[in-house]
What does this fold into?
Amino acid sequence: MRATEMRISVPTLVNNAKALRARVPEDIKMLCVVKADAYGHGAVKLAKALSGIADAYAVAIVEEAEELRDNGVEGMIVILGGGNESSLQAAVHCGASQAVYTTEMLRVLEAEAVAVGKQAKAHIKLDTGMSRIGVRTDDELAAMLDYWKQCPHVDMEGCFTHFCVADTDPVFTKKQNDRFNEMIEKIHAAGFAPICHGAASTAMLKPECRHDMVRAGIGLYGSCMPEMGTDIQNAQTLVTAPVRIETIEAGETVGYGRTFTASRRTKVATLPIGYGDGYPRILSNRASVLVKGKRAPIIGRVCMDMIMADVTDIPEVTVDDEVVLMGRQGDEVITPDELAELAETIPYEIMLGFGPRVRRVWED
It folds into this structure.
């Protein structure tokens, strides 16, 4: 078994959830987002660990809701994404609350609820500026509400929106929130009383955006909330060990394309991980790894199954030494945020980008 594995600290994730919960008044619910296998952290394990902290969970597709239910996760599960007829029917069967934004979606939920003798649940999705999915105009909203009154087997459990620039544009975020409040008033006037939520990780720290419930997303995993300081931490540590250590001479090159030329006698450690595992190829000649608590730069192109690191300045390194590609070792740390900046992407993609070839180990 190769040494490459992703270690996930469950206590760190629980502490993150508690820190976020502490920033929100007790009368406001907290929904924890565990879609995409909890951003690569393990949805089932995390959902169970957060029992007693989370008031609800959010996923993107019905298959994710079914996985939680099949593994004994109870309570409110909200499917944030859209769906076709079969996925809407499956949501009714597993007792998940489906995001809806068309009367046709309501029709399907109502028909399936009647057919199986269950009460369906839904959260009406409102588009206040994301221009992705959701009810957009007042006329659309009025039509939805009128039709909903003809669907007694579909509970309007919630209504929600997404803020698209909560971390960068307070003016547009206010505009979105004002529009959300206007639409909520129309929903209330029609006789519905759903749980209203719009704030994800960044916006949940803004009192005016909280409404009845907040959605803890990327902050739950320790990133993208500088306001939280060290109260939240990254929970993933990606490790491996060298499969070869060899010295090359000045002038020799490393890897495909010969993109690195040694300027001195160089000790090269070859590591058994690559873009086939989800380690981004764009990190070629950009990122570093940690060996014996010191940084060692990646040299040459990231291969499908291997990368090379310059360990010349760490002469005592051996093939038995643990190498950290993401996480902490000694006083040094490589965060998803750092790798995301080097890879010209966002921490979300780094966290959930590692594939099934990378063995997961949950540290409880």
In short: The longest strand covers residues 154-160. The two ends are 22 Å apart (CA to CA).
